[in-house]
Every structure is written in C-alpha cells, then in structure tokens.
Design brief:
The protein has helices at residues 98-116, 189-201, 263-272; strands at 10-11, 25-27, 29-30, 33-36, 58-64, 67-72, 85-88, 127-129, 136-138, 144-145, 150-159, 162-168, 179-182, 205-216, 221-230, 243-250. With 275 residues, the chain is of the alpha+beta class. It folds into 3 domains: 10-116, no CATH class; 119-147, no CATH class; 150-272, Nucleoside Triphosphate Pyrophosphohydrolase (Alpha-Beta Complex), CATH 3.90.79.10. The structure holds zinc ion (ZN).
Length: 275
C-alpha cells in the first residue's frame, strides 16, 4: 500500500531543529493541486527542491531517510519554477514513484490542517505555530488546535463466493470501491461498518474481521478495513444518492494488479487471492 516504503524510513516527529538544505524537497499546494514535475505515467513524478525556490517561506513537515520535506508557506498563486507545473493531486495516485506520492499525500494532509486553522475556531483570533508540538495556538484564548485526522471504515461484504463492490457517484475516483464511510461521534468503527452497510446497500452484516488500516492524507483520513458476511438475504438496496453502482463480483472477475496503493484495492485483491 501507499504507506509501505520498504527500506525507506519515514520520520514524522515534530521538530524545530531542521534548517532547509538545498537538496531537501518543497511541497507547494494550491487548492487541490500540487506543483510537481513529471506526469506519473511516462515520466516519474519529482518534487521541487529548496534550491529551486527563491522565497524560503518553508515549514518543516517530516523526513524520509536523510531528506527533509518542507511546506511552502508563501504565495502559491505566483510561484513559477521551470520544469514544474500545478497538477491535480490525483496525479499522486500514480504511485510513480512511491516515495514522492506518499510524501505528497502526507504533506497535503498537513497543508489542509495549516490552511484551515489560520484563525481560532473558538474566538476568531489569528493562530501561531506551537514551539513544542505539531499544533497551532490561538494568540488570544489559549486554544490549542491539533491536526485533524478523520477515522473512516471500509467494508468488504462477502456472500458465498462473491464480494460486494461499488462505484461512487460524483467523485473523481472512478474505479471499484467497497462500502465506506466516516465514523460518527459516539460509535465504534464496528458500529460505523454496520451502519454504513445498512445505509449504502441495505444489508445487515455479521462476522466482522479487522483486516488492516491506512493513512489517506488526500482526505485527512485514517482508514480501517473490515471483512464481513451478509446476515440475512443478500438483496442490495442501493443508496443512489451516494453510489452509482453496487453489485456482486466473483474472484475470477477481479483484475489482478501488482502492489495496489489503497486499502480498498488490497482488500479486493486479498478476496481474490483468498487471503
Ligand atoms: Zn481563540
């Protein structure tokens, strides 16, 4: 999956000790776009480096191996770097190369946190960066704002030798999906799984088995995956406000794929391989 970096070491400890070096990387975002080189298809993606930017308004985010990754905090509207262009953040799903795409996902999560909390939600005053942890502090009322990570679940429902797959309505991702949804306040992830299955396809489920997790920075999520079986009749009553399609597929109908980036795809492939 996207977060599996092999021999590379991701270090996300908060630190003020890092000084940008020319060879470190810079993440520049503008709404849902990232300033990046390559296209992820014919040419691997690559990030600008500190030596490429003249405005050194940079915030340390994390390191991978010995290289630092910095968020560009200047005016991204007017930034131009030869050989780089703003592209939809969806290009990061290309997984080419893994390390750039994981860095992009993770930095985008942090970018949204910083961008959405420039002012205190309690009193409206400006916020500043904490000097001791990854947080923003209100300059007036002492409110501390930590990064928001939204828990969500993914559920693979199995009936006999078939898996229930879906396609979202009105979302950029057009591939096969599973039942998914955010945890609501006051419920466990297992409660969420049961509720979402009932809401999205009208199915009662049983025998929930946890099967893995994944940070998904594009949507500020941490995802938890469960497999489950149908409790009762396998009749789909699709929520057509949310889903364009919902149908059962057999193992043979699932296309083989190497090293999928998402927990969803991993769960679908694990079903195919009977893992
Ligand atoms: Zn405040």
């Amino acid at each position: 999956m996207l977060q599996d970096l092999g021999r590379h070491v991701f270090k996300n400890e908060f630190s003020l000790r890092h000084e940008p070096r020319d060879e470190d990387f810079v993440l520049v975002f503008k709404e849902h776009e990232i300033l990046i080189g390559g296209d992820g298809l014919h040419e691997p993606l690559f990030l600008p480096q500190v030596s490429n930017v003249t405005d050194k308004s940079l915030l340390y985010l994390f390191s991978i191996d010995s290289r630092g990754y910095y968020l560009y905090c200047g005016d991204s509207i007017n930034i131009h770097i030869e050989g780089f262009s703003f592209q939809s953040h969806m290009v990061l799903r290309s997984d080419n190369p893994r390390i750039v795409c994981f860095a992009g996902f993770t930095a985008y999560h942090l970018f949204n946190f910083y961008q959405h909390n420039r002012f205190c939600g309690r009193c409206g005053s400006p916020t500043i960066h904490s000097q001791k942890e990854r947080a923003l502090l209100c300059t007036k009322c002492a409110n501390i704002i930590y990064p928001r990570i939204a828990p969500a679940v993914i559920v693979g429902i199995v009936h006999e030798d078939k898996l229930l797959v879906t396609r979202y309505k009105d979302r950029p991702y057009r591939g096969l999906a599973l039942i998914a949804g955010f945890c609501e306040i006051g419920e466990t992830p297992e409660d969420t799984a049961r509720r979402e299955c009932m809401e999205e396809v009208g199915l009662r489920i049983k025998d929930l088995k946890y099967c893995g997790s994944q940070p998904w920075g594009l949507d500020s999520n941490v995802l938890m995956g469960f497999m489950a079986s149908v409790d009762g009749e396998p009749v789909i009553r699709r929520d057509d406000g949310e889903l364009a399609e919902a149908f059962w597929i057999t193992r043979d109908e699932i296309t083989q794929e190497d090293s999928p980036i998402s927990l969803t795809k991993t769960m679908i492939l694990n079903f195919k391989m009977q893992i």
